[in-house]
Fold each of these.
Amino acid sequence: MSENTGDLMEKLVALCKRRGFIFQSSEIYGGINGFWDYGPLGVELKRNIKDAWWRDVVLRRDDMVGLDCSIIMNPKVWEASGHVVNFNDPLVDCKKCKARFRADKVFTVIAAEGENVLLSVGAEADDEEHARLAATNAANSKTRRRLEDHAQKLVWTVFRADKAPQGRSNICPLCGGELTDARKFNMMFKTFVGAMEDSSSVAYLRPETAQGIFANYKNVLDTQRIRPPFGIAQIGKSFRNEINPRNFTFRSREFEQMEIEFFCHPSEADKWYAYWRDERYKWYIDLGLKSDKLRLRPHETDELAHYARACADIEYSFPFGVSELEGVANRTDFDLTQHQKFSGKDMNFFDDETKERYIPYVIEPSGGCDRATLAFLCEAYTEDMAPDEKGVMQARTVMKFHPRLAPVKLAVFPLVKKEGMPEVAAGIHNEAKKAGLASFYDEKGAVGRRYRRQDEAGTPFCVTVDGQTLQDQTVTIRDRDSLKQDRIAAAKVVQYVQDALAK
Ligand code: GAP
């Protein structure tokens, strides 16, 4: 990670805490790794993202319905899905400091010139190239200079902890100690249901919302007037005991997913896969992620899960690297067939027009709500210059959220706390709230400071009630991004904001 990108992440994390977007979970007790809380602004931002998703994939369509399943399900679900046996990460431990790592994320980097080893360190990274970068960044300045001087002549050897060549062990990125061989670690959180704590009462917190949809596929078919092609959508918490939670909320142990399972005839699966892949990619762009930071990456054949026929990741260029926001996969009839086998229930759909009986294929667009929130936060973070009350240009930090996602849509200020201005401003504020708009009333401090606070919160519009308002019932409305101030009738403020949100 270069210094600049590290800086950006640090600034964003600081802003999230300072303004109440995201807090560390149980912070007063020192926190708990991999768990996060959304503060008053964060919860609105995240809810707006979930609402936008629900509106676009359920409410605006005729071929989708929603579902809300329990987090703990019969453990047979996870046997059928393969999670009990296969949901493993490779894990290594440091023999010296006892730190634990995901084996596929720790690398040993060796730079040698003939017999002469200049650098030999462990690094945590997502791939070999980043591991090499992390290792050289971690090198002290003297070693770094020597590496730079000799770079052309050096032989670089980089190997992953679970793919170390015979006889070579890996190096701990924290203390330089030796790492154990990789072993499998099941990522599902276990718990017990009922009073007995024995093997018969073991249950799991769901690691994905998808299986609740498959388990209810028959219920939905039998109770709704719906037939393939159709989809079921669900938003909900999932839990994974990640070995190395990191990059703020990007990889957490408790997170929210937004998943669709779209059921179709096998002969139409390729068509629907391409459809959903493109739809989902476009969704992020429409809500403000710039296309040059978004990437649609089809999986290589050797990356595909054994049951998947095609898969593409929607990736975003975060300050810490390009990483997955959402995966869109053609899961074939794998899940329904497995549940048919394990439950003994018939998962076929009988088409009474063609008289055909078949198990539908499933296209799955599966996104992470926290990752989407983090991407929208990264995208929104902007440092620019804006004039203060005296017209002097000052640096400001502004969160340029799409108005639909902004936690607060409108802030209303009386210019001064007298001459009836607070009453008029409070009237506009209350009217906005009655219309369902998240509005914030602020009468404290210089108006320039109030603007700055709203810029940091990402509020797209600030309305100021001033002396002229009392004469002609007009107010100024300031656009967060262009800083343009329009004068409009006080009575038109709510409509003005609603129009902007509908764009
Ligand atoms: N049902 C398929 C499934 O769960 P996945 O790729 O494992 O697929 C889907 O997860 C999405 O869930 C990811 O693209 C990501 O956005 C989100 N996600 C997965 N693990 C996560 C974690 N530890 N923290 C935050 N989000 C995560």
Note: The chain has three domains: 3-70+218-377, 88-185, 395-501.
Amino acid sequence: MVDWDVFMKVHSGMARQGPGDDASTERAYRMIDAGDAPLIADIGCGPGMQTRKLASMGADVFALDFFTQYLQELRAEDPSIPLIQGDMNSPPLKTGLFDIVWSEGAIYIMGFKHALRQWGRYLKEGGYIAVTEVTWLSDDTPCELREFWESGYPAITDIEGNLKTLREAGYEPLGHFPLPEKSWYEDYYDIIRPKAEAMMEEYSGDDDATKTLQAELDEITLFEKYSDFYGYVFYIMRKDSA
Ligand code: SAH
């Protein structure tokens, strides 16, 4: 069983809760022409590194997450960003209000297809969505890797598959690009790994805790081995006019 206290301890005090980097956030933002101060809903914001980057570029961002710990961490960094505690499945957001729905490393929680179909309702006519989604980057995915992802996230597909899904959900693709490999390490795995290793000793003998920590370390090992075959891809899209 996952030890959620241990999980939250590993993940506390980090700038991010998934792969990403400021340059990629900016690159995606520049692909959108939504005026000077677009209204953005950042869904699954976590501690909000991308939220703060968007705000620094002039956007008017509302940050939504389920977990108050992350919202508190974001507030400590920038008390001026409005926070919303809520579930992305039924977010307490006004329909038809936002220029952009943003979500880095979080859309998999609802599933790419389902979330795109749901979140469009919060956009103004012709609004935009920018998300990162874990994606196959090669045609010949090794078995071990395929089994790992298909047990945890069976909907994982390649870029063409995701572009097809987003078109079918009523969006026009404006661009996509993979996150650089370093954005998995710098603010994410490089922080998690030494923490998880140190906690392995602290919690030795505690089965659930060590299994939880080992799962974190195994995920990093898998990425080191197979990063040519999968990665996060940014997808930027515009909602079709009705
Ligand atoms: N966007 C951030 C966090 C990504 S991790 C970043 O890139 O750093 C995924 C985030 O989704 C976590 O912060 C987690 O707390 C949040 N989350 C998980 N389930 C959720 C739900 N049902 N509704 C809203 N947020 C959720």
Note: The mean pLDDT is 96.
